[in-house]
Amino acid sequence: MSWLAEVFADGFARRALVEAVLAGGFCGLVGVYVLLRRLPFLTVALAHATFPGAVLAELLGLNLLVGAGLFGVVVALAVVGLGARERVEETSAVGVVLAGAFALGVLLLSAQPGFSRDVSAFLVGSILTVQEGDLVATAVTGLLVLAVLAALHKELVFGAFDRNGLAALGYPVAVLDLALVLCIQLTLVTALPAVGAMLAVALVVAPAATARLWTDRLGLAMVLAPALGVASAVVGLTLSQHVRVAAGASIVLVAAGLFGASLLLAPLLRRVPVQRPPVAARSRPSGGGTVSDAGPAPESGAAAAAR
Length: 307
Known about the structure:
This protein is mostly helical. The chain has a single domain (2-270), classed as ABC transporter involved in vitamin B12 uptake, BtuC (Orthogonal Bundle), CATH 1.10.3470. Helices cover 78% and strands 3% of the residues. The chain has helices spanning 2-7, 11-36, 40-60, 64-83, 90-110, 117-124, 132-151, 153-161, 163-168, 173-214, 218-243, 247-270, 279-282, 301-306, and strands at 283-286, 289-292. A two-stranded antiparallel sheet has the order 1-2. It is globular, with a radius of gyration of 22 Å.
């Protein structure tokens, strides 16, 4: 404990620790929705597409996070708009936007020699340089994303299992898609100071994928994923401070290590036999058959979401 106190004794280290906790928690929770909707590739595209926003912000003298966030909104609108067209496949739209946006950033960067170090730090993260304003921006953005996801949770989950049924019930599917994409984009922006644009997708996907290995329940996964995200960020940051290596890479490697370990251990633990009570204790006769003490069988996930 004294060693940890020494590691985070300085103000910049404590700010980095707070940023790591916020980014890891928000990314882990949003990652559950990303996996539920099968959107890892889209998340990669959105993470890369924030690069030209940072370059434009540098040219205009704006905050890099503000530039990345605003440009990310434009990219999100382009992806959803192209994906809604019948003649354009969704994955094709994502690929085109990804390549085009990143190429624009490279073009702008090559046209302006002598760019500042802020852009390179934006790509790989610079968590030790975060200021109080960055922490406030991360917290406010994360809380906004959580509020939107909480308000639309039922619709987003229902749409993940039965998109046509969601549309048949009269819900605006395109608007819900756009809301989720914007939430993913804003979450990636909150992770930029910690791990950078190139590694932010790992902090979103890896904790959620690890939680998925341990449980099939959505509610439990939404608790495990943020916890794993926070653990990855804190442990990675602590190791980077101790060994003097890049913090962003350390955080992502810890998250990947947790996923690898879970991939090996979770199936073994799931094979442990569970002691069940006798059949007579679990059911009682009722007329000509048996009725479970727990009551009637639960309705399907789609029916529950529809209600």
